[in-house]
Amino acid sequence: MTEQQCLPDEQIPVTAELSLHAANERYVAELHQLVLKNRHWLQESLNWPQFVGGEDDTRQNMLSNRMLHQRGYAKMFLIVLQNAVVGVISFNSIEPLNKAGFIGYWLDQDAQGKGILSAALQALMRYYADQGEIRRFVIKCRVDNERSNQVALRNGFELEGRLRQAEYLNGHYHDQNIYARIFEEISE
């Protein structure tokens, strides 16, 4: 049995039908098909979908994320609705000393507009804030990515500024908005 198979499946409950599951090899095929299904519109906002070829690419990405997850440098969760993977939410990077986590996410186009991402985001933040691991949650998104900007605003994030030409996507540099939400630590 490999180390990957021995690790527990970390889960964060969201609702009776919605949960977050840490990156795990058992989800590779389902996630790969979801990426392929959504590749065209994902490419409008993310650089990596163009590089996904076969299922082995998804497997390697999943295993790499699992290792980073276990080491605390990043966290990748699959958004699971009624036992089906509908997206990903992650801390693309974590700064342990600053207790800061930089959030990324994407959701199956058919699952959008139903509050799934907001519920997943709230559960992820509450889970890590309650554990005392992260207190500053950050979302960076392109200025012209209206939906992602709205996710941040709807979930209590405050716009802290604009990063000029900070994201290279589809042959051009784009400005990014940077949002943050801080959960104050409870003194004992």
Characterization of this structure:
- It is globular, with a radius of gyration of 16 Å.
- Helix 2 crosses helix 3.
- The longest helix has 17 residues.
- 32% of the residues lie in helices and 35% in strands.
- The protein is an alpha+beta fold and 188 residues long.
- Strands 1-2-3-4-5-6-8-7 form an 8-stranded mixed beta sheet, with helices on both faces.
- It has 5 helices and 8 strands, in the order αββααβββαβαββ.
Mean pLDDT: 90
In spatial order, strands of the major sheet run 1-2-3-4-5-6-8-7
Q: What is the radius of gyration?
A: 16 Å
Structural class: alpha+beta
Number of distinct beta strands: 8
What can be said about the biggest beta sheet?
A: 8 strands, mixed
What is the helix content?
A: 25-40%
Task: Break the fold down into its secondary structure elements and pairings.
Blueprint: H1 3-6, E1 11-13, E2 18-22, H2 28-42, H3 55-71, E3 75-81, E4 84-95, E5 100-107, H4 116-130, E6 136-142, H5 146-154, E7 158-169, E8 172-182
Helix pairs in contact: 2-3
